[in-house]
Amino acid sequence: MNDYGLDGLGPWILHETARLTGDAISVQMLLDAGADPNSADHAGLAPLHYGVQNGDTMVTTYLLGANADPNARDSLGRTSLHHAAMHDGNPRILFLLVAGGADPRAKANDGHQPLHFALRRDPHHQTVTALIELGGANDLTPLQLASLRGDSLTVVSLLARRDRQPPNPNETDALGWGPMHFAVASGSPGTVAVLLANGAAANSPAIGGITPLDLAILRASEPVLQLLACATGADNPPEGLAIAAELPHQDDCAIPPPEEPPWSLYLENDMLRPPWKTDSDQWYTNGFRFAYTPKRMTVRDEDRERRVQWMVGQHMFTPSNLIRV
Fold it and tell me: Residue 71 falls within a domain, yes or no?
């Protein structure tokens, strides 16, 4: 029997306490009784990984005080800073981890840094801002960093400089994220517009396939979506850009919605019926990859109100100004 009275179960209890309860006092008691703060479970996750996922500053403080390794990696090569950026994104947690020795530029097995996770999951940009301050964006070029900050004036000055060769507006980082990805993630239409005017690609995929459009959808950025739609042209829209036609505050160059739904709904993987009662025998995707054609469907909700919805990627959008059909 070990020091804290549960033979072989101490590490499990510490993991579960950090993961489920957020009870900092219990965590401290277990640590005082001899629980190992660096023990890993079957997924390589240590108690600190679980503590930061919950955004619990006290649990994080106690674990770091007990010499928990802030750079310990799970089976995917992700550190506690990766997990903090993926989940709660509490800036206090980020500062605690870096103060405790966490590497803000640590790369997971797939090459992703904490910043990449924050760009996908941080709607208010607080985590991104904290990571920039902590050095998590130090691998970026000046243009990429200015785009990430949404600093359109700096982007203009960098692209317009005459004393030396201006930076490439499509230069990417190791994962294929270019200035446009970062500008879209910043939510700054002005920065996106400046980049578009200087030749930045509107919908270039990074490694893994994520495009600026995907980021705009994840962040529900309607003005940026409209800019991307305008940049690609209404005659030959790229994947999914027909959604811009159904968003409010349409620009003149946005794709006008057709009178009749011209696109069928189909799967590349398994075929499943939609969970709604539809007007016709249509099918839609339930796989991880949707077909590349923009898809429009007419559905009926519980109140039997018919409405038009667009499916793009793995997201479904209902126009705020419902179109009755």
Answer: yes
